[in-house]
Amino acid sequence: MADSTFSSRYRKYKQDTHRLIRWLYSIGRTFVQPLGTTLSVKDLLTLAHCICSAVPIIDIPLEIEYAVRDAIAGRVEASRSYASLLQSCQASTLLAEQNARHEHFIRVLRQILQFIQEARSRLKIECNARKIDDKGKYVDPRAAADILRSLDLEAGRSEECDDGGLPDYDDRDLKLDRDDGDFLFELWTFLQDQRDLREHVRKVWDRYHKCNITFAVATRVTESAFGIIREMCDAFTLSSYEQLTACLGLALFSSSTGPMFFTLATDATGSRCNSIWTQSWQASFSEHPFAQALDAVAESVSALAIKGSPGDDAIDGVFLDEFTRALVVFKQKQIIPMSAAFQAQIYMDFFEALGGDAGLPLLAPRRTHEIMDESR
């Protein structure tokens, strides 16, 4: 399972939102100055209004309208999940506040979409009413298309200040002020990606259980999925609240269904989260075969942690897969990597599918030559 085959909602909706922000910033900085690289929802609305009501009329690329439509559709889907969470949460003040900001952001995006549609309609009417050679009235559509293509460059671009004193910027640095409501949506899409991966691996182990694929194939797919999870968690951590990411993994460890972690994330520190890890597992999953498997390998993992260093792929001839490496980090630093929480949920799935003792060898530290034998 390669990263390219995984359809990430988080990546898609982040790209849709960022494409809109970059385009609004690039065009709108002509009308509104100065602009910083952190924009609020109000800034987006102001920029959209200036651009869409400009004279001469600006030809807005259809791709931008599609991006806004997709962004709205994703956020509307997310809002349905928030509604169900609000009904099930007893202490839901934080979630309710975040949801209100999110709903406000949806309304703003819909207003921006309306601005864009009205501007495109006005341009069409004007073009039909006047001769095409009256080009002084309009922005050349080809020039607008060139702008859009330049915004899609991976490396981003910078501009020097012109006589009007516009600031230099690199469009890779542009971001939305998460206090205005985008953070909860990012969190939702991130968790949806984790659930999608979990479901994919669950189906793989179901095929193994039905003897449709080999054990080696199932474990390779699982290890690949674990790598994707780690990369996604690392990327999410870079753009999220430090206190939340410190607690998120631990809170998910204490709930197999999650994400019921909002009250924990608001009033707990990372050290407090780590201190409750053992108690959470003992209280929730003491009889679960995966919890028993963790106990069974605890001594071996502790021995590896003493001998190894963070980031080792193998310690003393023992191969460290993604999850074992996370356990070693926990033993060394008393920190649970957030990715380990999602990986643990996947382990719980196929431990249940394989049934108790049949799943225990999956967590046993294995020497490198055993891994090589399996792959032959």
Mean pLDDT, all residues: 65
The N- to C-terminal Cα distance equals 19 Å
Fraction of residues in H or I helices: 55-70%
Distinct helical segment count: 15
**SSE arrangement, N to C:** HEHHHHEHHHHHHHEEHHEH
Radius of gyration: 25 Å
Describe the structure.
The chain is mainly alpha-helical and 376 residues long. The protein contains 15 helices and five strands. The protein has helices spanning 9-28, 41-52, 62-88, 93-129, 141-151, 183-209, 215-238, 242-253, 262-267, 270-275, 277-285, 289-307, 322-333, 338-354, 368-375; strands at residues 38-39, 175-176, 314-315, 318-319, 366-367. The protein has a three-stranded antiparallel β-sheet with strand order 3-4-5. Strands 1-2 form a two-stranded parallel ribbon. Helix 1 packs across helix 3 (62-88). 30% of the residues are buried.
Summarize the structure.
The chain is mainly alpha-helical and 376 residues long. Helices cover 66% and strands 3% of the residues.
Secondary structure layout plus pairing:
Blueprint: H1 9-28, E1 38-39, H2 41-52, H3 62-88, H4 93-129, H5 141-151, E2 175-176, H6 183-209, H7 215-238, H8 242-253, H9 262-267, H10 270-275, H11 277-285, H12 289-307, E3 314-315, E4 318-319, H13 322-333, H14 338-354, E5 366-367, H15 368-375
Parallel strand pairs: 1-2
Antiparallel strand pairs: 3-4, 4-5
Helix pairs in contact: 1-2, 1-3, 1-6, 2-4, 3-4, 6-7, 6-14, 7-14, 8-14, 12-13, 13-14
